[in-house]
Amino acid sequence: MAPETTPDPTGTKRRTAYRTCPLCEATCGVAIEVEGDRVVRVRGDKQDPFSRGFICPKGSTLGELHHDPDRLRTPLVRRDGRLEEATWEEAFEEIERRLGGFFEEHSRQSLALLLGNPIVHHLSTSLYVRPFVLAAGSFNLYSASTLDQMPQHLVSGLLWGDPSVFPLPDIDRTDHLLMLGANPMASNGSLVTAPDFPGRLKAMPARGARLVVVDPRRTETAARADEHLFIRPGTDVFWLAALVHTLFEEDRVSIGRLEPWVEGVDEIRDLVADFTPERVAPICGIDAETTRRQARQLVNAAAGAVYGRMGAHTVEFGAATAWMTAILNILTGNFDRPGGVMTASPVASRIDDREPGGRGFQTGRWKSRVKGHPEVNGEFPAAGLADEMETPGEGQVRAVITVASNPVRSYPNSERLDRAFAALDFHLALDIYVNETTRHADVILPPPSGLEEEQYELTFMANAVRSFAKFSPPVFERQGPSEEDIFARLILILRGQGAAADVDAVHEEVVAEAVDRLLKDANSPIAGRGRDDILAELEGLSPVARQLDLRLRTGWQGDLFGANPGGVSLAKLAKHPHGVDLGPMVERFPARLKTKSGRFELAPKQLVEDWARVRARLEDPVVPGRLLLIGRRHVRSNNSWMHNIGTLVKGRSRCTLMMNPEDAGRLGLSTGGMAEVTSRVGKLRVEVETTEAMMPGVVSLPHGWGHDVEGVRLSVASAHPGVPSNALIDDEVIDTASGNAVLNAIPVEVTPATA
């Protein structure tokens, strides 16, 4: 599939490549105009049926990211204390030497793997991360999931049996959207893939739909809402419980068609019995009548959806908050219903029409060494990493592999973690930058530019509000090894086979295992087919494309290797460079239930036991004696790694401490002045920005800044450093049920900064 070629007014030829922007969850289609080896323009692809030409400021800078002179093109190896350029062979030889020596002295449990957000934006990483983790042989797996979304994994796993199936607000058809802790006007959506989320919100009034936003800050999304309610940070669970209480109190529970598959309603009634709107009002700051009115509006809507995200999940009761959100959607009859919350039907996945039931979901299969944190979804809490690195004893983490991860600027208590990284025996990083974390690395392997790789948004299509498929070939010829080859060589090293072993053997093994799993599954659409015939059908493609084609062709819309002529395949997508839209979400329950009971288990033991923490706080509410810190998102930023793009950081600093003018005046602060912000674990000096958009008693700092440390090689970011808000985040406080870090509702003291 060759990119189109279009004439340029200057008389030279330009080619246009159609891709999907990989810089956030929205997956917007982009048209990339190229001359030779240079990107000359990036614009929204108006022919993309999913995003319809929408593009945010980040997407327009894909060319700047690709051409960024600070982006690594060759490996770096530490020699005499300094990271220096090396050949790929030298880098892999050093990794083999260092890891081989390390495993002679230490067990596999002294190695930790740290996975960052960008891995889910890359097809090759999405496909190879599992065999990579298995080859490492360590239980010490950490990712961004325990920084922002593990409560939803836990609730999805316990209530309907699948931690990867998220409830998505059917934004295009809903009549009433109640949103907590989310700001899609800035984030473009989180744990829901809906390109042009702002446009979809703007379209709601025309059909008479209503948007209510509950947030401690009048965000860009709240400013567009029909109603915005201030809520004290970290108290969403109490307010949601009061809404559930109101449903029972006013006899408004109406589950609808899924009622025969729901159990635990009476237990939920008992759990929220004391959470009256009057009792929670002084805790959360929303009066009782408003709470009752919101419950009635949700029930009375023709189709309503409750959507809670990062601001509601990254708190002390994150799992309980996600639980009550799901309970509201189920008890109002809005779960798995058009216009309510539904689940995605990704084109590259099977959707079996089967009897409800399955193995269920289990946590705590292994526990962390120091604090005994149970694994959740195979991971340990990111907030506990420093403990594992600093505490001596058998299994102390002494070596780390980071993949597109910057924990020194993302994990809690950054100063402590920075010291821990500096003391490691070995650190291998897969990254495109020398950033605050990778500056400590012994070897850095730079993956190819995203524009040099094949692209299919495998992960985010699993959270999409429409069934959409789009494959894109590379825009440019790759300058170094492919990402799958990098992972294959690391897998060989971790297995002890050596860096010089045959990478093709790994690729063949991965593809063959995927085929064998399908052939052995009696419910598979290709069960009983000839193994050699299926493998022959996949020949001629790259290792990544072979795996993708297998998934597409055996997916619910696939061609089933000829059994369903006209179905989806990689060859078919090649004829549709703008993508193929196969329609909106459809009802998938009860067949999608994978709990042991084959029902929605509304009151699982693990969450009921965790509710004791919530009840204890209801009995003895904490009255904040200090200001509460929350984070915030900006449309020009994505965590810590988009700050080296000049276009995105130009203008006045966005890394400011937002606070209500009333609080500022009381403390002797004003816009433009400098303040000291102190938490239990850290202190920062930051510029103040006063605004009525902040709830009194609440202050806000953005996440991912602080680029002025020695050793980083980020010329633009270093000139616009900002301050690291995670230096204030307490790593001793987590949501105990899910292991998620507590990034919001942090008690802080704010004072005028001394000279």
**Uncertain ranges:** none
Query: What structural class is derived from the secondary structure elements?
Result: alpha/beta
Strand content: 15-25%
Give the strand order, joined by hyphens, for the main sheet: 6-5-18-17-16-7-8
Q: What is the correct CATH architecture of the domain at 170-343 and 596-613?
A: 3-Layer(aba) Sandwich
Total helical segments:
25
CATH superfamily of the domain at 170-343 and 596-613: Dimethylsulfoxide Reductase, domain 2
Q: What general outline do the C-alpha atoms trace?
A: globular
Terminal CA distance = 61 Å
Helix content: 25-40%
Count all strands and give the number: 29
Please summarize the sheet with the most strands: 7 strands, mixed
CATH class of the domain at 170-343 and 596-613: Alpha Beta
Give a verbal description of the structure.
By secondary structure, the chain is an alpha/beta fold. Among the domains are: about 170-345 and about 595-615, Dimethylsulfoxide Reductase, domain 2 (3-Layer(aba) Sandwich); about 625-750, Barwin-like endoglucanases, CATH 2.40.40. Helix content is about 30%, strand content about 15%. The chain contains 25 helices and 29 strands. The strands form eight sheets. It has a seven-stranded mixed sheet. Strands 22-26-23-25-24-29 form a six-stranded mixed beta barrel. A four-stranded antiparallel sheet has the order 1-2-3-4. Strand 24 (about 675-680) and strand 25 (about 685-690) form a beta hairpin. The longest helix has 18 residues, at about 90-105. The chain is globular.
